[in-house]
Amino acid sequence: MTGRPVENQNPSAPPKSLRKIALSWAAGGFVLTAALAGGLALNAQTIASHNTNAPVSFDAGKIDFDDRANRVVLTGDVIVNQAGLTVRSNRMLANYTDDGTLDVVRITASGGVIVTRGNERASGDVAVYDFNQRIITMAGNVQLRRGGDTLNGGRLVIDLASGLSTIDGRSNGGSSAPGTQRPNGRVTGTFTVPQND
Fold first, then answer.
1. Reported pTM
2. 94-127 as b/e: b if 16+ CB within 10 A
3. From CA 96, how far away is CA 77, in angstroms rounded?
4. How do residues 54-81 score in pLDDT, each as one tens digit?
């Protein structure tokens, strides 16, 4: 074998020049799609620019301490605030360390979870805020809104350290309300466009 390309032996195949044009269009479309997706990722980082070292405040109808398990159970329209980031839900479980101070290491929220910061709002059935990893993971009927833009999926991961937010069609727990099921685990959404006068 000499390493030379094999000539097109199929007379019904398109000429090489047409194949090159088709490949260049496909590559251009991929680059454009990647650029648009990258732009959307850059514009949807209000929550991800959050200061995870700020103190956390709690507000709830009832708080139960479980000192043996180093956790606190909060119920009744629970609101957690940290440097402009707000997490609301019906119930939360806060795990903490007991090394002389009570440092919260994880919050697990369930029941109508809403996370807001600035004009960005994420909602879902369940959310876990891991303070050590600096990651918020939401699952079940997830919706991410920023201004007029909306994304819907099964799971949202917000990496507060890197600023990367990822939404996919997988759902870990939670059930879809009638009419909101994601077909084939797909992500859906709408994006606003500049308005011409």
1. 0.67
2. bbbeeeeeeebeebbbbeebbbbbeebbbbbbbb
3. 21
4. 999 999 999 998 888 899 999 999 999 9
